[in-house]
Amino acid sequence: MSESTNKLVRIGITHGDFNGIGYEVIMKAFEDHAMLELCTPIVYGIHKAASNYRKLLQIQDFSFYGVQDAASAVKNHCNFINLTEIDVGLDPGKATPASGAWAVKALNTAMDDLENGLIDVLVTAPFHKSNVQSSEFTFPGHTEYLANRCKVNDYLMLLVSENLRVGTVTGHIPLHDVASKITVDLILSKLKVFSQSLLQDFGIRKPRLAVLGLNPHAGDGGLLGKEESAIIEPAIRKANEEGIMCYGPFSADGFFGNGTWKQFDGVLAMYHDQGLIPFKSIAFHQGVNFTAGLPIVRTSPDHGTAFDIVGKNIASPDSMREAIYMAIDIYRNRELYAEITSNPLEVAPRRERDRDRY
Known about the structure:
Elements: E1 9-14, H1 22-31, E2 39-45, H2 47-57, E3 65-66, E4 79-82, H3 97-115, E5 121-124, H4 142-149, E6 156-160, E7 165-168, H5 178-181, H6 184-200, E8 208-212, H7 227-241, E9 245-250, H8 252-257, E10 266-269, H9 272-283, E11 288-292, E12 298-301, H10 318-342, H11 352-356
Parallel strand pairs: 1-2, 1-5, 2-4, 3-4, 5-12, 7-10, 8-9, 8-10
Antiparallel strand pairs: 6-7, 6-11, 11-12
């Protein structure tokens, strides 16, 4: 087994919007000191904001460990890189220009360190999509920013829980634009990214994918729309011809309502809410947002800034904790996959669990 399997993964964590619940879920996640046995966290944020929330939430058995930079991070501590000493103007529960700007600053700084090899993976606390917009940040969300930063065209926003993985063909776009954006090539590219991610990131040897239709009842034989027969079905056929096991199109309501999703390793939805509403209904507190298809590993809780509950000490850290666990698992899965595929003739002893995954 490679040495990397046993090493502590260095996890960069951005604070997100400092007027949201980012600090609360980060601190609560690492109140469990056993987390530090799995990783070395480095939080990118603002010390005054972190201290404010620690006092507000009356979190006692936890403290950040200040470091100058990621290279100085130490084991067994929740390391903290302070982005500024200035008064940033905290306004808990509100999206302000300052909270948006410092969310982007944290993200850019963490990405710089990731690209320079100072951290291994990235976990992002949520920011608000409106107040991060500027001449320097014109992306609808983390996913699009990261794809642009990594110079990747074929990527996939993936929502993941223990036994449910949902990707979307279209992302953060208005609903009235969805039908015009869906093409055979776009669906095929998403299926390729999805299948490869299930193989290398999740250790599923022969993934089975389900594809949802666009229209009610998957078009009902053309009565309710032609996209299924003209676009989605040809994409499924092409994917199967290229060795990707995928099936559909399925009517979304019945597919999730009767539990058919349990028969598949992944589900490809046509648009954001078609996939995310059932996902969050099934696995909201354990769900993780993962950007598949990138050369880096990035995960995030599947919830937003939750401005309505900031400071009330009721935000659950479960999704943040799961995002951290998943980043570690994917990082190790990728290293294992790279080891296996780069030495196809070398048979090395490894645990039965690792052998069975490929």
